[in-house]
């Protein structure tokens, strides 16, 4: 039986007072079954503070990782899971019994599980807005679902198009549009990715990894044209529970 007493967990990130994870796990730990567990935010200004954080908190058992450290934290870890290695981003860290740090990615799992129920045969290809750590987990999930995708960024690079190239033909060819950028989060909730929203139809899925606000301007614009919309809340719950399993295995 797992010893659940006096175990500390937390979230690594920057400017994370809004944290979903802290609220979620704090609520979870109110159940007497989890008595003794605690969860806190570790808000650091840059990734080089991570080593000191670990040294000063020897009783930590696990961390979630959020923007902007999902990729930056990797060199500080002792080992990566196979999927985290393939994805190239980490959002979960397990402190092992031999005091090693092992990185995992549960973002891909949460995204895949939340998107799958929405998929219809005509949802054949996806546009991924953004190229950060979160987008890598999304891309990995799409690979597992056999859905081809293209990345979109402000600057075109190899295998990446820029927003200026998106038009009606793009929307004909890509039926799933996924926002992996922070555009639309508080306090700039009226902002949205620079897309020609009139080309959304009821054959499209608009998925936003943002969960606060629950309906971003991106989602509102897509919804007005009949698209199926989904925010990142369920994805976060699924990935959080997956992280919990990893910390306890």
TrEMBL record:
Name the domain of life this protein comes from.
Bacteria
Query: SUPFAM superfamilies this protein is in?
Result: Aminoacid dehydrogenase-like, N-terminal domain, NAD(P)-binding Rossmann-fold domains
Q: Does the keyword Lipid metabolism apply?
A: no
Keyword Amino-acid biosynthesis annotated: yes
Species lineage, top-down?
Bacteria, Pseudomonadati, Bacteroidota, Flavobacteriia, Flavobacteriales
Show the InterPro entries listed in the entry: Aminoacid_DH-like_N_sf (IPR046346), NAD(P)-bd_dom_sf (IPR036291), Shikimate_DH-bd_N (IPR013708), Shikimate_DH_fam (IPR022893)
Keywords for this protein = Amino-acid biosynthesis, Aromatic amino acid biosynthesis, Oxidoreductase
Q: Name one Pfam family in it.
A: Shikimate_dh_N
Q: State which pathway it belongs to.
A: Metabolic intermediate biosynthesis; chorismate biosynthesis; chorismate from D-erythrose 4-phosphate and phosphoenolpyruvate: step 4/7
Name of protein: Shikimate dehydrogenase
Q: Which residues form the Shikimate dehydrogenase substrate binding N-terminal domain?
A: 11-93
């Amino acid at each position: 039986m797992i010893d659940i007493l006096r175990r500390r967990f937390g979230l690594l990130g920057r400017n994370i007072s809004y944290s979903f994870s802290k609220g979620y796990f704090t609520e979870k730990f109110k159940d007497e079954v989890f008595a003794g567990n605690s969860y806190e935010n570790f808000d650091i200004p840059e990734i080089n503070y991570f080593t000191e954080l670990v040294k000063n908190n020897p009783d930590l058992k696990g961390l979630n990782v959020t923007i902007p450290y999902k990729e930056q934290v990797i060199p500080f870890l002792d080992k990566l899971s196979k999927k985290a290695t393939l994805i190239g981003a980490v959002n979960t860290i397990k402190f092992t019994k031999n005091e090693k740090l092992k990185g995992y990615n549960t973002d891909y799992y949460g995204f895949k599980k939340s998107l799958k129920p929405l998929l219809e045969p005509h949802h054949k290809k996806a546009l991924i807005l953004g190229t950060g750590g979160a987008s890598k987990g999304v891309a990995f999930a799409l690979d597992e679902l056999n859905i081809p995708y293209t990345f979109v960024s402000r600057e075109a690079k190899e295998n990446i198009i820029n927003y200026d190239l998106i038009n009606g033909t793009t929307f004909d060819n890509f039926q799933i549009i996924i926002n992996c950028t922070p555009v639309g989060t508080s306090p700039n909730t009226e902002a949205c990715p620079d897309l020609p929203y009139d080309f959304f139809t009821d054959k499209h899925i608009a998925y936003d990894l943002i969960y606060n606000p629950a309906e971003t301007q991106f989602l509102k614009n897509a919804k007005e044209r009949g698209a199926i919309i989904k925010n990142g809340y369920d994805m976060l719950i699924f990935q959080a529970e997956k992280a919990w399993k990893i910390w306890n295995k």
